[in-house]
Model the fold of this input.
Amino acid sequence: MMDGRAPISGIIVIPPAKRPPMAMTLRLPEALAERGRRYAADSGISLNGLLAIALREYLDARESAPRVAPPPRSLAQAIAQQVKAGPVRRRR
Done:
């Protein structure tokens, strides 16, 4: 081209298109779905937006809570046996 601009040379990288959000079917009891639709409408958001917020908050709350590992199976079995055996009678 002779319009005064420098010619383009080299490699042109075209970034990949953004992935569209995941679509899914969600089955809710009708009463719960209606409550959600009303709350979303009152809040000025879509039901999809409300569900995304609710799921994010639910998962975030569980990530911040400390996780306690269950007792080892053998310990749990020993406790269950003690419970079944009943209280220990002490000698006087």
User: Anything to note?
Assistant: The first helix runs from residue 30 to 43.
